[in-house]
Amino acid sequence: MPKLSDKKLCADSECSHPILIARAVQDYYPGDCRFIPIRQGQLIYVYAMLKDRGNLFWAGSVQDSYYGQQEARIGHFPSSVVEENHPLMPASTEVKTTKWDFYCN
C-alpha cells in the first residue's frame, strides 16, 4: 500500500498520546483496510495528523457506542468527516511515517 504522507504531527515521538477527541459529523465507509469505518456521532481519539500531501487525513481510534461491545479500531480517516470536540495535547511533534503506519494485512 502506498504511504499517504511522509510525516505526521503527534503529541509525542511515539504518537501514543491522543491529541484531541473528535465527533463524527457524517458516516465514512473506507475504501481499504488502512482506513476505519466511522458512524455519525461516534467519538474518535485522534493520535496523529498527517502532513504534506496527506494533510486531509488523521489517524485515530474509534470505540463502539457501548464500551466493550467491540474492540477499538485504529486507522486513518478524512479530517472532513469529524469536528474537533475536545483538545487534549498540542500536536507539536513532527514524526516521520513508516510503511507500518499504512500497513494492511
Automatic annotation (TrEMBL):
<dbReference type="InterPro" id="IPR001452">
    <property type="entry name" value="SH3_domain"/>
</dbReference>
<protein>
    <recommendedName>
        <fullName>SH3 domain-containing protein</fullName>
    </recommendedName>
</protein>
<feature type="domain" description="SH3">
    <location>
        <begin position="17"/>
        <end position="87"/>
    </location>
</feature>
<keyword id="KW-0728">SH3 domain</keyword>
<dbReference type="Pfam" id="PF07653">
    <property type="entry name" value="SH3_2"/>
</dbReference>
<dbReference type="InterPro" id="IPR036028">
    <property type="entry name" value="SH3-like_dom_sf"/>
</dbReference>
<dbReference type="InterPro" id="IPR043369">
    <property type="entry name" value="MIA"/>
</dbReference>
<dbReference type="GO" id="GO:0030198">
    <property type="term" value="P:extracellular matrix organization"/>
</dbReference>
